[in-house]
Amino acid sequence: MKKVLVADDYGAIRELIRTILEDSGYLVFEASDGAEAVCSARKFLPDLIILDLDMPSLDGFGAVREIRLDQRFAVTPIIALSGKAIHDGGERARTAGFTCFMAKPAALEALPGEMARLLGATAAASGG
């Protein structure tokens, strides 16, 4: 079973994402801010990470920088998720170390398919 870490400061959003992902067969871990996400990533070694960009303590950009410093996460797909419009189409998120950007709430329905695509690409890249 693939492990996913979901970090968002809104409990209702985490619960919604957790429900969607568990229904799709993923084991889900949650974090309520960026600092907690970094600690949880190191502890649970998820196969994929979803980070809200706007969180207290450490935002998604700071969290992805910290997570990417750990070589265990060099190829781990990390999705930037935000309810705020990004005018550059997510280029800033990709430059910061995210694999892709998805806008919520519209992206939530597409999340399992995008995750399957990313996890499949990661397995192919690692020879798994």
Distance between the termini: 14 Å
- Structural class assignment: alpha/beta
The CATH topology is given as Rossmann fold
Lateral strand order in the biggest sheet? 2-1-3-4-5
Low confidence ranges: 124-128
Q: Can you tell me the number of structural domains?
A: 1
Strand segment count: 5
Radius of gyration from CA coordinates? 13 Å
Shape: globular
* Oligomer kind: single chain
Average pLDDT reading: 88
Sheet of most strands: 5 strands, parallel
**Given this structure, which CATH class is correct?**
Alpha Beta
Task: Report strand %.
Answer: 15-25%
The CATH architecture would be: 3-Layer(aba) Sandwich
CATH homolog superfamily = Response regulator
Relative helix content:
40-55%
Continuous helix count:
5
Quick overview of this protein structure:
The chain is of the alpha/beta class and 128 residues long. The chain is built from five helices and five strands.
Molecular structure report:
This protein has 128 residues and is of the alpha/beta class. The protein has a single domain, classed as Response regulator (Rossmann fold, 3-Layer(aba) Sandwich), CATH 3.40.50. Helices cover 46% and strands 19% of the residues. It is globular and about 30 Å long. The chain starts with a strand and ends with a helix. The C terminus is likely disordered.
